[in-house]
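User: Please fill in residues for this 321-position structure.
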C-alpha cells in the first residue's frame, strides 16, 4: 500500500517569493527563487515522509468559479507589489515544472481545474479498498484543504511545518475548531467568506460565530426558521438568514465536492525517471549549483526516489482524475 504527498505546487512556489533568502534569487536575468523553493520543498517533504510518494499538483484555471464570482482571487493582484511577485512566479513556473520532471517527480494538472480540485478527486479515490493507496498527506499552506481530512488523510504546511490530523480537527487543535465534521467546517467558511480568495461572507460573521449559530439552531435552515419565528432576534442570525444566495454561492466556490468536473482532454500527468544529465544542465542554466550537488546521482534523495512505487500510483491517480 502507498502513502501519497499531494503538494500544492503553486501555493509553495508563490510563498517562496516572499522568503527573503529566495525572493531576490536570480541568474542571467531570470528570477529563480520560486524554482528553488519548490524543488527544496519537495526534497524536504520526501525526507520528512520517506515512505511516501510526492505528487505535485498544479493549478489550471477554473473559469466557472470566476463566472460565479468575478472578483474571485482578484486581491492577489491588487497592488503593484503583488503584481510583480505574481509575474515573477509565473515566469518561473515552466522551469520549475521542467526541473521537477527531470527529478523524477510525478506532476498533475488539469487546464480547467485548480490543484484543490485535483486533490479532492485523488482523496475520493481512497474510498476504494482496492485502490492500492491507503494514506494521503495534503501539503499546502491553504487551510481550505482541511475539508478533505479523514482518518487516513491529514494536512501539513510545508511553510510553517504545522501538521493537522483528522483527530486534531475534531478535538479542537485547529484554528476556529473543534468541528463536528468537515461539512460543518466548509459551511461555516461559506458563511464567513474567505479574505485570502477575495470571497465576501456575511458581514460580521466569522467561522466561530457561524459554528455557534449552526449548532444552536440545528443548521442553516434552522437559523432561518429561528429568525422567521422570532426565536432568534440577534442581528447576526438575521443577516445569515437574509444571505442565503450569498452563502450558496460561496459553498459552490469553496466546497470541493461541488466542483465542476473537468472536460475531456483537460487532464495531464507527466513523470519520467530521474535524469541526472538533465538535472545538472537545468541547475547550471539557473545558477543553482548547491541544488545540483544535492541532486547528485548518489544523493539521498535520488536513492530514495528510485524506490517509489510509481507505476501503481500513476494507475491510481489516473483512475481518480
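Assistant: Residues filled in for all 321 positions:
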Amino acid at each position: 500500500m502507498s502513502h501519497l504527498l499531494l503538494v500544492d505546487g503553486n501555493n509553495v512556489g508563490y510563498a517562496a517569493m516572499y522568503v527573503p533568502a529566495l525572493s531576490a534569487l536570480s541568474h542571467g536575468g531570470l528570477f529563480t527563487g520560486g524554482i528553488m523553493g519548490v524543488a527544496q520543498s519537495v526534497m524536504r517533504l520526501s525526507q520528512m515522509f520517506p515512505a511516501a510518494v510526492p505528487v505535485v499538483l498544479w493549478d489550471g484555471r477554473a473559469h466557472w468559479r470566476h463566472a460565479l464570482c468575478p472578483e474571485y482571487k482578484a486581491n492577489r493582484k491588487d497592488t503593484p507589489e503583488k503584481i510583480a511577485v505574481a509575474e515573477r512566479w509565473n515566469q518561473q513556473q515552466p522551469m520549475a515544472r521542467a526541473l521537477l520532471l527531470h527529478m523524477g517527480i510525478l506532476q498533475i494538472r488539469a487546464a480547467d481545474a485548480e490543484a484543490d480540485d485535483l486533490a479532492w478527486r485523488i482523496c475520493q479515490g481512497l474510498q476504494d479498498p482496492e485502490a492500492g493507496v491507503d494514506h494521503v498527506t495534503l501539503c499546502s499552506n491553504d487551510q481550505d484543504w482541511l475539508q478533505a481530512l479523514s482518518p487516513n488523510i491529514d494536512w501539513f504546511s510545508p511553510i510553517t511545518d504545522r501538521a493537522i490530523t483528522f483527530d486534531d480537527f475534531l478535538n479542537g487543535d485547529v484554528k476556529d475548531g473543534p468541528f463536528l465534521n468537515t461539512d460543518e467546517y466548509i459551511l461555516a467558511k461559506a458563511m464567513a467568506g474567505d479574505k485570502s480568495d477575495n470571497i465576501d461572507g456575511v458581514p460580521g460573521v466569522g467561522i466561530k460565530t457561524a459554528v455557534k449559530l449552526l449548532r444552536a439552531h440545528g443548521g442553516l435552515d434552522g437559523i432561518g426558521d429561528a429568525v422567521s419565528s422570532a426565536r432568534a432576534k440577534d442581528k447576526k442570525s438575521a443577516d445569515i438568514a437574509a444571505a442565503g444566495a450569498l452563502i450558496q454561492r460561496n459553498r459552490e466556490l469553496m466546497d470541493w465536492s461541488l466542483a465542476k468536473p473537468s472536460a475531456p482532454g483537460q487532464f495531464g500527468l507527466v513523470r519520467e525517471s530521474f535524469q541526472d544529465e538533465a538535472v545538472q544542465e537545468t541547475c547550471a542554466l539557473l545558477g543553482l549549483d548547491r541544488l545540483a550537488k544535492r541532486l547528485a546521482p548518489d544523493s539521498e534523495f535520488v536513492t530514495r526516489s528510485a524506490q517509489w512505487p510509481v507505476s501503481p500510483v500513476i494507475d491510481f491517480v489516473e483512475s481518480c482524475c
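For context: Strands lie at 2-8, 26-27, 30-31, 52-58, 106-110, 133-139, 153-156, 163-164, 267-270.
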